[in-house]
């Protein structure tokens, strides 16, 4: 089993899409092990997006992420990092495949609905950055034999 970090961005929170997005994640079979609505401070936003510090869009990205609450989550499942990225879709919603979260719900790259960790290493780092261990729940679900061989 693998865990990944997802963050519903301020645009989707403001558009009342939290339920729609969590519903897609749950229906796929991923299991929610942590989740919280929170306002992100500048230092957390800068640490989270540190890899993009030299990009022209970095300042706007930090302003956007700190502009209104986000919904941060940890989800678990087989190959969870890849599966979550796959259902999220391409970075630019105008090019993301219909059926994906960004492809169905977004229009522009600067308002692209949701973040998902892009590797297992990034997921570990981001889960530790955004969540304390006591905010994550270990539990079994009876549905598991119906999701996994
Ligand atoms: P992703 O979120 O798909 O992993 P990324 O890591 O390349 O994409 O970029 C992080 C975020 O930065 C992305 O979700 C939206 C924003 N971003 C990326 N490219 C951009 C661009 N060309 N213009 C404006 N914002 C951009
Ligand atoms: Mg990324």
Automatic annotation (TrEMBL):
Keywords: ATP-binding, Cytoplasm, Kinase, Magnesium, Metal-binding, Nucleotide metabolism, Nucleotide-binding, Phosphoprotein, Transferase. GO terms for cellular component: cytoplasm. It is found in: Cytoplasm. Residues 1-138 form the Nucleoside diphosphate kinase-like domain. Its main location: cytoplasm. The active site is at 115 (pros-phosphohistidine intermediate). Its EC number is 2.7.4.6. Major role in the synthesis of nucleoside triphosphates other than ATP. The ATP gamma phosphate is transferred to the NDP beta phosphate via a ping-pong mechanism, using a phosphorylated active-site intermediate. Homotetramer. This is Nucleoside diphosphate kinase. It comes from Staphylococcus kloosii. The lineage of its organism: Bacteria, Bacillati, Bacillota, Bacilli, Bacillales. The gene is ndk.
């Amino acid at each position: 089993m693998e865990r990944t970090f997802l963050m519903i961005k301020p645009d989707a929170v403001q558009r009342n899409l939290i339920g729609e997005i969590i519903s897609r994640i749950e229906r796929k079979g991923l299991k929610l092990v942590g989740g919280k609505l929170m306002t992100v401070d500048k230092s957390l936003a800068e640490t989270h997006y540190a890899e993009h510090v030299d990009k022209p869009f970095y300042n706007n990205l930090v302003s956007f992420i700190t502009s209104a609450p986000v919904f941060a989550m940890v989800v678990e499942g087989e190959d969870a990092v890849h599966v979550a990225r796959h259902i999220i879709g391409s970075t630019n919603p105008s090019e993301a495949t219909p059926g994906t979260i960004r492809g169905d719900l977004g229009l522009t790259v600067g308002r692209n609905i949701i973040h998902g960790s892009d590797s297992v290493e990034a997921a570990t780092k981001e889960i530790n950055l955004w969540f304390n261990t006591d905010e994550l729940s270990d539990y079994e679900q009876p549905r598991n034999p119906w999701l996994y061989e």
